[in-house]
């Protein structure tokens, strides 16, 4: 049983690790570290020969950084931005689903997502602004 877990759930491909490293290089923090956001684009994935699933878990890695309340991982998919949003269940006033709903997405408290037109680079500034507004309001209303 452990071998199955290790092979499919506990092992990252070299390409997946390289993609995670690129995401960490681009990682930015806002609101004194409460928000963490990063992205990868089609050029990164093409250069690294990424397979489906190689980006899995990047949003969780970002969420697990001390002090982060809202983690956002943006990934380009055919000219659109696919966002994976994570929050800590222990922080009652922040919900990944509620943030994702701003963009017509969904999910649940700890994990959400959405897709919007345009590349991550094109959408980055607006998503940061919305995240700052969202976390600020949530913090004030806790």
Can you tell me about this structure?
With 142 residues, the protein is an alpha+beta fold. 42% of the residues lie in helices and 25% in strands. It contains six helices and six strands. It has a six-stranded mixed beta sheet, sandwiched between helices. Strand 3 (70-77) and strand 4 form a beta hairpin. The relative contact order is 0.15.
Show unreliable segments.
none
Strand order of the largest sheet: 1-2-3-4-6-5
H and E string: HHEEHHEEHEEH
What's the end-to-end separation, in Å? 43 Å
Give the biggest sheet: 6 strands, mixed
The beta-strand count equals 6
- Radius of gyration from the CA trace? 15 Å
Structural class designation: alpha+beta
Instruction: Give the percentage of residues in beta strands.
Output: 15-25%
Shape: globular
Q: What is the overall number of helices?
A: 6
How helix-rich are the residues, as a percent range? Answer: 40-55%
Average pLDDT figure: 86
Summarize the model shown.
Helix content is 42%, strand content 25%.
List keywords for this structure.
142 residues, alpha+beta, six-stranded mixed β-sheet, 25% strand
What is the topological layout?
Layout: H1 2-8, H2 14-25, E1 28-30, E2 35-40, H3 42-48, H4 58-63, E3 70-77, E4 80-87, H5 96-101, E5 106-108, E6 111-117, H6 120-140
Parallel strand pairs: 2-3
Antiparallel strand pairs: 1-2, 3-4, 4-6, 5-6
